[in-house]
Every structure is written in C-alpha cells, then in structure tokens.
Records
---
Amino acid sequence: MNKIDEKSAARLLRENDNILILTHRNPDGDTIGSGFALLHALKKLGKTVKVVCTDPFPEKYGYIAHSNNDDVGENPYVVAVDVADMELIGAQYRAKYEHGVKLCIDHHISNKEFAENLCLRSCSATCEIIYDVIKAMDVEIDKSVADSLYTGIATDTGCFLFSSVTARTHIIAADLIEHGADFFEINRIMFETKSLGYFKLEAAALNTVEMHCGGKCAFMTVTMDMQKQSGTKDGDFDGIAGLPRKIEGVLVAVTFRETKDGNFKVSMRSHEPIDSSKICMNFGGGGHSRAAGCTFEKEALEENKKKLLSIIETELKGI
Ligand code: AMP
Ligand code: MN
Ligand code: MN
C-alpha cells in the first residue's frame, strides 16, 4: 500500500464527507485522542463523522469522547488511527472493514501497512501525527481538539517520561496548551487518580512478581480472580504493565493479564537495548521498541511462557 504524507492525508480527509474512524481494542488515550481530535476537527468542516471501537471507551475519557452521534451510512470513508494491524480492530469491525480501510494513521514499528499509510515510527504518539494532519487541513485547533491531542501524547509517553519523547513532542504539547488543553486536569485524571479497586489490584499483582535472568527480567500476573476481587472494571488497567519495569536492574518486564475468555494479554515493557516489539512478533504481536504486546491462548500459556523466557535469555546474553 502507498506511503503518504500529512498533506495527502489531509487532502483525502477533506475530499470525503462521511467518515468512520476505527480505534483499536482495549482503547487507550492515544487511539481515543486521535479518533476524537479528528472527529472534532472534521465536524468543524461540516463532515459527518463517527468514532467506533469494539470495546467501550472508559468513562475517564468522557471529556473528549462525546459528540459522537452522527450516522455515517453504509459506505463511509474508513480511517484507522493508532492501529498497527487489522487484528487489533476486533472481530466485529474486522469482518466488515477487513479490506475497506482507506487511510491508516499510526506510529507502531510493527505497522502492517494495510491502507494508504501515514505511519511515522519516530513519533511518540499517533496524536503527534494527527496534529500535523489537522494543521494541513487548515482547521483551527480549538479546546476539544487540543484536549484530545494532549491526552494521546501525555498517555502514550507516560506523561513525557519515555525515551520516545522528542523536543518536538514538547513543542506540540506547548502549542496545545496555548490552544486551551487543560493539561493539569488531564494529567490529574490520567496519572494522579486511581480507583480503590485499582490500588488493591496493584497490590495483588505486585505479590506475583517473579524474577528471572539474574534480576534482569520480571514476570507479573494479573488473574481474573484478582480483577473480580478488587472490583476493577475493564479499562482500569492502563499503566499496570509499567510497574515491574520500575524494579531496579530490570531490563524486560512482562505482565500476563487474564482476560474474560481465559486467554492472557501479554504486555512487555523494556529498557534499552531490548526490543520488545521484536520479541512479541515471535508470538504474532508487536508494538514499539520499549512497549509491545501479544496474546497467549490459555492452553499454551505455560509452553509460551517457557519459550518467551528462553527468547529473553538470548536477548539478554552479553548485556
Ligand atoms: P499494551 O501492553 O497493551 O499497552 O501494548 C503496548 C503496545 O504494544 C501498544 O502500542 C500496542 O498497540 C502494542 N500491542 C499490544 N498488543 C499487541 C498485539 N497483540 N499485536 C500488535 N501490537 C500489540
Ligand atoms: Mn494505542
Ligand atoms: Mn499510540
């Protein structure tokens, strides 16, 4: 598929009037922020726009995830944001749009290039790219667009903490603040607020930490029982995977979270030089160099854990 630039993406969006925006499953701040920044911007151009996701948008994103009641009809122009692979869209939309996505805006190393493709892997968040596309569409950035884009950039960078952050990330964030992004409130909601259930879940999860590879690798498990007992809801898990990487000396941290179907969502976080995306690609997943994921089927959990540990051991050799 064609690689395109921000200007071409902006032209394609301007040329279409009914636009459907697909976000990835287990939606995070970047996919939601990208989707709703585009929605709010395109509505200013008089377009009919809808953002959809196979999972509900967590309530905490309610300040940007609104004004989403347009009917885009049966034949909309379909755009995917922050989606590396159609598999991440979820079965329901995949069946309908497997070959129907016209434009993909993303920043994952593992992007499968399944549509007209604007994938800039050096950007810390898809929202950085959407910022340029909105500028190229010549739409003024208002408070709802600024809040949406700031949310995506702040959440995908762990509040400007990760190695993916560049000077330009800060320049864009500063411009968004000048255009009304309520950075203090957004950061308070995203980074300084946890439900009581989430606190309990973190405590239970931290108790499962196992150390491997002479302290360079940590495994952590979050079972369905822990989730039930703590009273957490889906969408409350952003950030839990970052915890075991904080252990001194750890270069690779892996969190295995049991999902409703009994399978395990694997979230890997690493430090330089460990490439998490490369490791997860061995299991059909992917992501970024320092944050990636894949899924382990319940039947293959133990076997895959062993295989994963042996891959990690190889990667850590000589470091
Ligand atoms: P997570 O651990 O879910 O926060 O994901 C970390 C990064 O890896 C995100 O950028 C995800 O988009 C990506 N990722 C997670 N799971 C998968 C998967 N099964 N396939 C491809 N990329 C994934
Ligand atoms: Mn994402
Ligand atoms: Mn992202």
---
Amino acid sequence: MGAWGENVAVTALLPLDEARARAVAAVAAPLDAEAVEVGDAPGRVLAEDVLAAADVPPFANSAMDGFAVLAGPAGRALRVVDESRAGRPARRPVGEGEAIRISTGAPLPAGATAVVPVEHTAERDGAVVLEREAPPHANVRDAGEDLSAGAVVVRRGTVLGPPEVAAAVAAGRAEVRCARRPRVAILATGDELAPPGAPLAPGQIHDSNAVALAALAAREGTQMVREGIVPDDRAGTEEALKRALVAADVVVVSGGVSVGPHDHVKPALAALGVEERFWRVALKPGKPAWFGARGSTLVFGLPGNPVSAVVCFLLFVRPALRALQGAEPLPAPATALAAEPIRRSPERAQAVRVALDTGPDGVLAARPTGPQGSHLLTSLLGADALALVPAGDGEVAAGEPVAVERIAP
Ligand code: AMP
Ligand code: MG
C-alpha cells in the first residue's frame, strides 16, 4: 500500500474518545424505573434518591456493655435498679446514686448521661463501683448520629452494592426504585465456532466470547434474552439479528465485522434498518468495532478476537449499559505509573491489560500482563485494569503515568 492508501486508512479510524461518546450519546433516556426488593437490588442502578424515613439510630443507645449512669467522678458505688437490653428498654429512669445495667445497642434510659464500660467497674453486694470517671456523653450513641430523618442516604444513579442496600434498609426501605434491567442479546458469529466442551472438528475453536460477554453483561445488572452461535452466511446472520433486535435493548455481536468475504454482520444490519454510528476505531485491540442503532435499540459489532471482544465491551458496551440505567457511564479517571516501558502505537490508542499493585509508597503501579496479542486470552488473566495509552511515537517510560480503567466494577 502506498502513502495515499495508508492515509485513507488512518483518517477512517475514529478516535477512541469520540467512539465512546457516540455509544453513550445514543442512549436517549434511561430505561423505565421499577420497584425492586432490596435483596435483589445489588448490581442495579438506583432511579430515585433514598431518604432516611427516620433518624438512624432511632434512639440514643449504648456503645458498650456496662452501666448507664449520671456523668460524674470515679469511686461512686451505685445501686443497680434495672436493666436495658437490646430490644428491651429499661422500665424506669436512672437517678442520683443509681445505675442501670445496659447492653451495646440498648436504649439509653431516661436520666442517664454516660455509660461506664463493664471493664471499668466492680460489682459488690448488689452495687456497682465505678473505677473510672464517667465523662458526660461517654459511650453514648446519639439518635440520628448515622442518618438524620429526611437526609439523602443513597443518590439516584448509584450502582447499588452491599453497603448501599444496607443503608437503604436502615433508612426504612424494603424496596427501592431501580432502572429496568437492560435486555441483552449476545450472538457469536463464525463457522469455526463450537459450543463449550464440544469435540473440535478440524479448523474449529470453542466459542469463548459468548460466555465472556455474557459474564461482563451480567455484572452490569442486565438480563440475557438471547444467546447463540450464528453461521457465516448472510441469511443466517440476518435471521439471528432480526430476532435479537426485537427481543433486546442491546444486541452484542462478536465477529464478522471486518472486511473479509465472510463478514456478513454489517450488510445484514443495514438490511434490517440499523443505522451505523461508527465503524473502525483508532484502538488496539478493537479496530474493527462497529456500533449502530435502530430506534432505541443499540447494536455493538465487536471484533471476534477474544481480547478485542472483551476490551470493546468494556470501552463501548459497558458505558452504554450504565447510561441506559441512569448511572455515570464512564469510570472516574484514575492513573497509575507504568511498571515497565510500554511501546506506543503510532496510529491507535492501546488498551493494555495491566495488573495494578500498590507500591510501598502507596502509589499505584500498572504492570502489563505479558504478550498483548488480541488473540491471547491469557493477557486478560490477572488483569485488573486497562491502561489506555494514547497513540504516539516511542514508548511510555517506566514510572510515567498512564490512565487506567478498572475491569471489575
Ligand atoms: P472475526 O472478527 O470474525 O474476523 O474473527 C477474528 C478472530 O476471532 C478469528 O481468529 C476467530 O476465529 C476468532 N473468534 C471469532 N469469534 C470467536 C468466539 N466467539 N470465540 C473465540 N474466538 C472467536
Ligand atoms: Mg468470523
């Protein structure tokens, strides 16, 4: 190819950031919200602000097992007049010369202004002797100390995890409103593909992309509606895509988007009225990535090479799935220092699979996982993040900062 031809190829590649922006911009509005039981909500995206229905904790209580008393000096001998246990408050207040035995989390009795831990007391003849001073408010947890009534506990757009659902329950909720789960279809194209575990005929390989993409989609709170292997013929490709388009919010196709004579995905999608939004990105791996939409249905044509498919899912499909659920599409920018030199690619941004280690100085280091070929699934093993290295000459020297995006949410 001469210089002219090379130039054409170069200008035809869309910059990575622009491609990501188009994938996110294609989401016109988040999916409708629905009520979700808190136990089913982890992994889903909150479609409302959760407010505390009441103070948390609802009442002042003890931080220790010990005795509720009036604050005051050490050496006092107090009569034990009642007990306050978790879930069973004392029936009377505490006064001068008195103590009420109390458990952690039990309501502070009326009149009490401090709790003396049991370790700092001695019990003699029905009385308790305080071996230490009881400063005002010692070991008392106030009502509303964690959350005050009406406070926003978890914000709309948050991807819910164990802490957020716990906070929602403390705030009084059994259900929260979340965006509907995006319906995802995953189609793996290729005459060479055999299902997992099937004996391989000559020239066949196992379809590893479908399971990888399904697992990545599942992490985003999605619902799988169709999955399958699609042969490399025009009619079969169009038929499979037609069904996927009516069933799914997001169709993810692996393979068949390059320029070979057996790549039928693009013409089939065009025939089905899916409008191209980009094709070919200045990205390594992932150059043949294709994206389009039909109405509100998004279609991602990912390259078949296993690493390219995963990288393109992370960089294009994941942001779109988050936007569809009303979450922040892109992760917060983070940087790490290259643990070893990384050669730049002159024309394409690279998504280098790296392990992240925190050095003794607390600084994050990004260490490439090994050979980075787009067919080397092993380059994903042990990878914590993608280091996004812009196109350019030379190399990123060891110790230079690189942008990193975590693979696991
Ligand atoms: P394609 O994008 O269809 O040209 O495929 C590029 C490379 O990825 C070829 O080596 C394919 O055999 C391989 N490949 C395609 N689909 C899959 C798949 N589902 N699982 C594993 N490898 C695949
Ligand atoms: Mg193929």
